[in-house]
Specification:
The chain contains 14 helices and no strands. The relative contact order is 0.21. The chain has one domain. It is an all-alpha fold and about 300 residues long. Helix 1 (about 5-30) crosses helix 5 (about 100-105) and helix 4 crosses helix 10 (about 190-215). It is globular and about 55 Å long.
């Protein structure tokens, strides 16, 4: 008879594989709909739809834990601003002027950004090998942002989307650091529900300004509706659920290795749907980022106790 843990582990690994696929799909979709859905509209309606799906199971839990939510609403608002509010909005804005491949490569440096900000803000100890890893990852980002040409930096001739994506990664890094400093002890579903609700409220005034004075919104056509449902369900709710389930079963260190699939899936999807092609600077920058991630997230080996105590 198979071990009882076989199926949960199999499901955990499947979920951890699907999560970077969904995140890569998010970047590809964002790039693919630049002419039909304004970025602020895409961000706002993504989270409104996600909230509508969450409410039937999340609202009862939020109601039961409401005193804690009311007590810690300021912390939760700050967390929602940097995660739900800023991160995906900036990602969708970046898609206006850069490629899905660039978005995904820069996005894959999130663990490095988290480690760097935890060192700067929380005072986490940083081993020399991690500092080398951060340096390599930053060099990789510079290769991607500069598109392999150093003259981009001397002429300050950057693509705005690449710089906006760096800001998105910094926003998620700040969210991760704040989450450690101001952890809110809610159940996962209640926490996610409150985060999505507050994040949608953060986006709302910017969406209304964009709707009234800039983009004018979008037409809800049969081709647009599936896009909104995809970004709400797959890179939003399912990716969150699969990631947390995977971390629970295999641990954060092993789960983090699946993040390296993100650029691979993005290259495949962007080539298939957007006709984007890998360039030499993608390969060089991607390798530098990969080695930087490996060094930054590498766990030190535990020191084994001696077989016998010294006399």
């Amino acid at each position: 008879m198979p071990d009882k843990t076989t199926r949960p582990l199999w499901l955990a690994y499947l979920g951890l594989t699907l999560t970077p696929l969904f995140w890569a799909g998010n970047a590809v979709v964002a790039r693919g709909v630049v002419d039909s859905i304004p970025p602020l509209s895409l961000s706002f309606w993504r989270w409104v739809l996600a909230l509508a799906i969450l409410l039937p199971i999340g609202a009862p839990q939020v109601r039961r834990q409401w005193p804690l939510v009311r007590q810690r609403w300021r912390s939760m608002l700050a967390l929602a601003t940097f995660s739900v509010g800023a991160f995906n909005t900036l990602l969708y804005l970046s898609a206006q002027t850069t490629t899905a491949l660039n978005i995904t490569l820069v996005n894959s440096t999130i663990p490095v950004m988290v480690a760097l900000l935890a060192w700067l803000i929380l005072g986490d100890r940083m081993r020399p090998v991690q500092l080398i890893g951060i340096g390599l990852a930053i060099a990789g980002v510079l290769v991607v942002v500069g598109r392999g040409d150093w003259r981009t930096f001397t002429a300050l001739n950057f693509q705005p989307g690449d710089l906006i994506m760096v800001a998105a990664v910094a926003s998620w890094g700040l969210f991760s650091v704040l989450l450690r400093r101001q952890a809110v002890p809610l159940t996962p579903i209640a926490f996610l529900t409150v985060q999505v609700a507050l994040g949608a409220l953060v986006i709302l005034p910017f969406y209304l300004l964009d709707l009234l004075f800039f983009s004018g919104g979008f037409d809800l056509t049969p081709s647009v509706a599936p896009t909104l449902l995809f970004v709400a369900i797959f890179p939003g709710l399912l990716a969150y659920a699969f990631w947390n389930h995977g971390v629970h079963w295999v641990g954060p260190a092993r789960a983090a290795m699946f993040m390296y699939l993100n650029p691979v899936f993005a290259a495949l999807l962007a080539g298939l749907f957007l006709n984007e092609r890998l360039s030499v600077f993608h390969l060089i920058g991607g390798l530098l980022i990969l080695f930087g991630l490996l060094l930054t997230t590498r766990q030190p080996r535990p020191v084994r106790p001696p077989a016998t105590l010294p006399e």
